[in-house]
Specification:
heterodimer, A: mainly beta, six-stranded mixed β-sheet, five-stranded antiparallel β-sheet, 0% helix, globular, B: mainly beta, four-stranded antiparallel β-sheet
Amino acid sequence: KNQVEQSPQSLIILEGKNCTLQCNYTVSPFSNLRWYKQDTGRGPVSLTIMTFSENTKSNGRYTATLDADTKQSSLHITASQLSDSASYICVVSVRGAQKLVFGQGTRLTINP
Amino acid sequence: EAQVTQNPRYLITVTGKKLTVTCSQNMNHEYMSWYRQDPGLGLRQIYYSMNVEVTDKGDVPEGYKVSRKEKRNFPLILESPSPNQTSLYFCASTYSGANVLTFGAGSRLTVL
């Protein structure tokens, strides 16, 4: 069964600190993996996309990694800011089908 | 501005009273989809459409209907809403073959 599991479910850190969010998937065949950021009360917005051959991708203070062998991805946030408080959703695409498998998300709270 | 527009944003209704949530996109996207988001369950796909007059069930289609008479519009219809359909609903769209979804702002529905 195609599944995406994210951890932790929630995380609270102080402003300025770094953090790493995890995503494990069992989707097959794999096409690509995206991380979305969802602010409270708003729709998700794409942060990064990674294909099978990519190991790392950065978008400002956000760095995503992908290990296709272990089927794991991480999203690292550097020097966190209050505006980083949001839910982060890992989404894996099934190759050959317009099918996306969503993780449950990690709720990140940045405290001043 | 390229966007997905959902209406209404907030709605409180009673069991059995038919309602429609509209979704419109101005990006000429072929693919459109509806999701519901519930605490602890993440985003779950209700229905999707690959193009005009082509719709298919997602993971949780029971109690919902959709139509795709025009490329830009993809309404979600609840013929006889029940309290278990109380949720936050998102419409999203993308080009066929692409997987970066553009989400609407969400519609919070409460069924009493």
